[in-house]
Amino acid sequence: MHRATPAEVWLAFPPLVDTNFGSFYPSTAVLAAYLGQAGVPSEQTDLNEEFAVWLLDRARAQGGRLPEVGPETMAGAAARWLSRSPERVFDSGGRHDFGPDSPYGYVVRLLSTPYLVDPDERVLGPLDHDDAVVGAYDAFYAQADLRSRIGEEVSLVGVSVPMGPQLLPALLLAEHVKSLRPDVRVVVGGPAVSLMDAADLDRLLTHHPHIDCVVRFDGEHPLLALAEQTRRGDWQPALVSGASYADGEGVTHHNAPAPGPDINRLPAPLYPRKALDRLAAPALAVTQARGCYWGKCDYCDFIELYDGSPPFRGRHPDGFVDELATLVEEFGVSRFTFITESIPPAFARRVCRALIDRKLRITWNSFAMVDRRFDRELLALMAEAGCEFLVVGMETTITRVLKLVHKSADREENLRFLRDAREVGLPLIVNLIPDLPTTTYDEALRALDDVRDFAGSLLSVSVFPFEATRSSNVGRDPEQFGLTVGPAVQTSGQAQYALNHLQNVDPAMTREQRADVHRRYREFAEEVNSRGYRPARAAAGRPDEAFRLAVEDLDVLESEGAVVCTNMRTREQIRVPSKAVRILRPYLDGAPFTMRQLTERAGERVGGALFSNLTRAGMLTEAAKGAGGHDARP
After folding, report:
1. Burial class of residue 406 (count of CB atoms within 10 Å of its CB; 0-12, 13-18, 19+)
2. Cis previous bond, 16, omega within 30
3. How far is CA 345 from the centre of its chain?
4. What are the DSSP calls for 443-509, one per residue?
5. pLDDT category, 5, cuts 50, 70, 90?
């Protein structure tokens, strides 16, 4: 009987990337394949997914009351609702059904919100283990059985940190690993540390000695070199390109990066089958490129992630399609995400033709930018070849602003792209930045009106209030883009990596105008994103039509005499004052009622207003859609 070779490297993906719940992030799979090709066996653990399950179990065990979560917050509502309805996020086989396609995946993301920590300077120093969120992560790692999971042959632990909110949990993971296995070397890498400046890395390495080395930029070559050193018992990070470390006297060093690997020679990602088997709708990620073929957007710092290498390295279409076919055959998976900053039009055309010619029936999605070469014919070809949606960083439709930050398209090209995609039936997820540098209030509203005209054909909308990063062109020369360096006006709550954000002020809008713009954009995004769920909307002149509270989707919290209702599908919340609670109480279990009944109980003005507020907030559904065995008749 064949016995697996014991792992020498343990690769961990720590929390918290809430957008990746229900999925498997590819970074460890890419590294594991590269190490394996060189004869270094490894094991992968998705602690991010495990954290989501731990939160769900903890919420259920504690009746929806988590000490880190305020009861009247959206996270509190999510905790209570999920504790009562866990079957909504698992399929009949117990697999995780809270990925991006799940109607309730967003609720699990809400549950995790209190634990999503935007790392600032505090994480660079000693961590406060009395902090509630730090304590929650400590509890999670304590129950994760790390000692038995890190095999005896493991000499190196690699921690992949692509996202800013993973930094604090990664540091805590390193502490726990070292407390259990002081003999192993802990290496941290990924974009979150690659974008740090040298001074921040110095502080991190000084105050977190449980981290033996940080790898910046492409990780394959440095990780393999460090793994081979630990295999020989000869730890010398000074010899490894792209490594940052503290020497025996506590002095930090940053080695210059070397060119990364030829991505056309990388092996296919080595996805762990057990991790995929627990997902209801797994999608595999395949690298299309590293870097961006445009690479000129002044506010973007993703193009800074591959220092030492060419700014753009793309795959050959034939080899790319071969890899897709191999993964389909090996895992039986037919859904894919193409990893790229923006898929090049010529590459897309060749790959789509190859997929059709080879009858490789898959669905896939990709990031794309508005480019005139994505004409109607190509967009139609992409839809025919299985593209289920494109994620498009459109940002705005204001030509003046687009030119200022060196975007490729102008207003006319953006609108043409939206029209063509709509006409060929290719769904889009559109990313918007309402307040790129120098955007005025009127311009922001005009851009919103432009995109609103296409709302019906958009799959979803994501809104990212602008935050200048220190590692972008805007951050390096803010005055050139109309910004003044100084304390930022925070109205968005969007930041996920404060360490890399430049404190700045954009005088193009007042504080009040910016807050109003953010609110309007978020409301538009919510309108589009909740479109798949149609709660009842009462119509005038139908006082005897029966409705009920959509209790299967509601969290109902009684607080100080009032009732807070939260619809977990629409993400809308309403607070019913104590005087109206007695009117509504007979129906809190889903019993049917009419507007006439409410007005008879409370008077026409109060009953009518209550009914109108409930319908406007999406709390009602038609009584014919019975709940809990109630007779549909009032």
Report:
1. middle
2. yes
3. 25
4. HHHHHHHHHHTTGGGEEEEEE-----BTTSHHHHSGGGGT-EESS----S---S-GGGB--EE-TTS
5. confident
CA contacts within 13 A on the Cβ side of 46: 24
Backbone angles phi, psi at 546, to 5 degrees: -85, 130
Q: What is the pLDDT of residue 561?
A: 86
Of 622, 621, 576, 627, the C-alpha closest to 602 is 576
Asked whether 175 and 209 are in contact (CB, 8 A), the reply is no
For 441, the enclosing helix (H) or strand (E) is helix 441-452
Segment 396-440, tens digit of pLDDT:
999 999 999 999 999 999 999 999 999 999 999 999 999 999 999
**Mind giving me the DSSP string for 448-467?**
HHHHHTTGGGEEEEEE----
Secondary structure class of 215 (helix, strand, coil): strand
Distance (Å, rounded) from C-alpha 303 to C-alpha 314?
A: 14
Distance separating alpha carbons of residues 337 and 367, to the nearest angstrom: 9
Instruction: Name the token pair of 148.
Output: 């038995």
Gap between the terminal Cα atoms of the chain: 67
Q: Which residues of 180-324 form beta strands (DSSP E)?
A: 185-189, 213-215, 243-246, 252-254, 284-287, 289-291, 312-314
Describe the crossing of helices 511-529 and 441-452 by its angle, rounded to 10 degrees: 10
Tokens of 489: 């006006």
The radius of gyration computed from the CA coordinates of the chain, to the nearest angstrom, equals 26
Residue with tokens 């992560």: 137
- pLDDT by residue (tens digit) across 37-59? 999 999 999 999 999 999 999 99
pLDDT at 1 over 70: no
What pLDDT is attached to residue 198?
A: 92
Residues 529 and 461: beta-carbon distance below 8 Å = yes
At 145, list the tokens. Answer: 């059985």
Using DSSP, state whether 163 is helix, strand or coil. coil
Asked if 213 and 243 count as a contact pair (C-beta separation under 8 A), the reply is yes
pLDDT above 90 covers what percent of the chain? 76
Going by their DSSP bridges, the two strands 9-13 and 387-395 should be labelled as: unpaired
The closest alpha carbon to 383, from 366, 395, 371, 358, belongs to 366
Buried b (16+ CB within 10 A) or exposed e, 115-137: bbbbbeeebbeebeeeeebbebb
Q: Is 214 helix (H, G, I), strand (E, B) or coil?
A: strand
